[in-house]
Amino acid sequence: MLWNTVVAGRSCQGWSRSEPVVSESLATYLQAISRYPLLSAQREILLAKQVQALPALRRIPPQQRTCQHQRQLRAAERAQQAMVNCNLRLVVSLAKAYRADHLSLQDLIQEGNLGLLRAVEKYDPTLGYRFSTYAGWWIRQTIVRAIANQDRTIRIPGHTNALLRKVRAAAERLGRGGVENPSLSLIALEAGLNLEAVARSLELSRKVQSLDAASHLDGACLLDLVAADAVDAYERLDHGIELKQLQARLGGLTDLERAVLHGRYLCGQLRRPEQVGEELGVAPTAVRLAEKRAIRRLRQHLRDCRSR
After folding, report:
1. Which residues, other chains included, contact 283 with Cβ-Cβ below 8 Å and sequence gap of 6+?
2. pTM here?
3. How far apart are the C-alpha atoms of 115 and 6, rounded to whole Å?
4. Which of 95, 108, 183, 265 has the fewest CB atoms within 10 Å, i.e. the most exposed one?
5. 276/11 Cα distance (integer angstroms)
C-alpha cells in the first residue's frame, strides 16, 4: 500500500540518494495515487475526528483493550490511511514548485509525504478550515527543511535560507518587470532588506564543488587542475641558478650600480628607489638612472654570452 511507503519514509527520512532517478517509477507512483478520490468536506471532518482519537486509543495497554477499543483503533488507523492516501496528489503538486541540485523530485515528494503524515496527526477539524489549507504549510516546511539540510555540501542555517529565498523572489519579480541584471541596492529595496544582508545571502549561496569531481572538459579530477600555492622544487632550483649567474655578472658594473641592484632586488624584498637612495645617500633619480644603466649592461652581457 502507498500508506506503507509513507510510513517507511518516516523512518528512513527519504529514499536512497544513491538510486538513480527513474521517470518510469515516478509515473507508476503518480498513476497509483490517482486511484484515490478527493475527500469531501463532510468526509474529511469525519475521518479527522476518528484520527484525533487515535493517540488516546494507542495509550491504552493492549491487555486492557476491549473489543470496542480494538474496533475503534482499527477504524482510526483506517481513517488515518485514507486521509494520507487521498492527499498524496497535494504533496506532488506542491513539490513540483521546488528545485534542488542533489534531491530529485521523488526525494522532495517523499519529504513532503512526511509533512503530510504530520499534518494528519495534528489537524483539528473544529477550527473551520479545510485540511489541504492546513497540510500545505507542513508539506512546504518539510520540503524546504530537507533542501536546506541535504542539498548543499556545506549546510546553510534555516534563517539564512529564508533570507536567500526572499532575495531570489525579489530578483525574479524585478526580472518579470523588465529589469535585467538588477543591482544589489535595487534587490534590497524590492525585498525590503538592507544592502549588507542581500550581499551576504548571495555570497553564501555560491555552489560548492568537490575537488574529487570530474572536470567537464576532459574528465580529469578537478584537484589535478588546481595550481599549487607552493613553489615547485625545480622552480626554486632554477631561481637559485639564475640568481647565482646574475651575482657573477655584477662584477662588470660600477659600485653604485651594484649597490642599487642589491638594494632594489637582491636583499630579499623589493624596495622603492626612495628607500635605496636614502640608504646610499643619493637622490631617488640617481637610483633610477643607475638601475637602468645596470640592467642595460646586464642584458648586453647576456646577449654577448648567447652569441658566443
Report:
1. 277
2. 0.55
3. 10
4. 183
5. 73
Rounded Cα distance, 110 and 5, in Å: 9
Half-sphere exposure of residue 20: CA atoms within 13 angstroms, side-chain side: 3
Name the phi and psi angles at 219, rounded to 5.
80, 0
Return all residues near 112 (Cβ < 8 A) that are at least 6 apart.
Answer: 91, 92, 94, 95, 139, 140, 142, 143
The angle formed by the CA atoms of residues 223, 228 and 230, to the nearest 5 degrees, is 150
Contact 125, 44 (CB under 8 A): yes
pLDDT per residue as tens digits for the range 187-237: 888 888 888 888 887 777 666 666 666 666 666 676 666 666 655 655 666
The per-residue pLDDT for range 161-172, each reduced to its tens digit, is 778 878 888 888
The residue assigned the cell 646586464 is 298
Closest C-alpha to 89, from 156, 50, 168, 35: 35
Return the sign of the alpha-carbon dihedral for residues 287, 288, 289, 295: positive
Q: How many CA atoms lie within 13 A of 85 on its CB side?
A: 19
Question: Could you tell me the CA-to-CA distances from 202 to 18, 20, 145, 164, 168 in Å, in that order?
Answer: 30, 31, 19, 7, 9
What is the C-alpha radius of gyration for the chain, rounded to an integer number of angstroms?
Answer: 36
State the angle between helix axes of 158-176 and 184-191 in degrees (0 to 180), rounded to the nearest 10: 100
